[in-house]
Amino acid sequence: MDGIIEFRSLSERYTLSGNLENDTNKDRTTADNWIFSGKYDYFVSKKRYYGLQLIFERDKFTDLDLRVTFGPHVGHQFYESKALNLGVDIGLVKVDENNIQTKDKDYLAMDWNVNYEQFLWDDIVQLYHKDNALWDWEKSNKVVINSWTGFRIPLNSGIVASAEVEWEYDSKPKDNVSTTDTTYRVKLGYQW
After folding, report:
1. 30-79, pLDDT tens digit by residue?
2. Residue 130: domain span
3. For the chain, how many structural domains are there in total?
4. SS3 string of 15-69?
5. Could you tell me the CATH number of the domain that includes residue 185?
6. What pairing do the DSSP bridges indicate for beta strands 28-43 and 2-8?
């Protein structure tokens, strides 16, 4: 399950988003994770903005009980229309990781976000890509990336169908955990 709500005025933008995944295979849980974020952007010009972001993330199978990321960013909204949206921001954030079995840690990291949406073929299909990444350059050069890429097809009365690939990367995972996790989804949703 996932969702995004965005409120926009001429000078401000509030974005709330979340993604929850709980998968089972033959009565055995194979995925148990979620990520929720809140973001505030203040536009100082038509394209440039400053803001704050707060992210909560949990992934039981990578030993992550809770990761809290908070900090400021500066961004550029390259395009903003129904046909094409592209915004990129970068910031310095404080990360606090509480782990289930291994030692907890906190660190400063560079954070970047990419948000891209573009309609193709006369508003029939929308390509999208959302990317959030952390680079712990302070202590370990660890990089964590959460990425969603897919196609949305508007059907009727706000109903949309989607095909999506979620790709998660951790350059320094816990023992016995892969550096990447890829999930393929077919989704049905509502958009207004």
Report:
1. 778 899 999 999 999 999 999 999 999 998 878 889 999 999 999 999 99
2. 2-190
3. 1
4. EEEEEEEEEEECCEEEEEEEEEEEEEEEECCCCEEEEEEEEEEEEHHHCEEEEEE
5. 2.40.160
6. unpaired
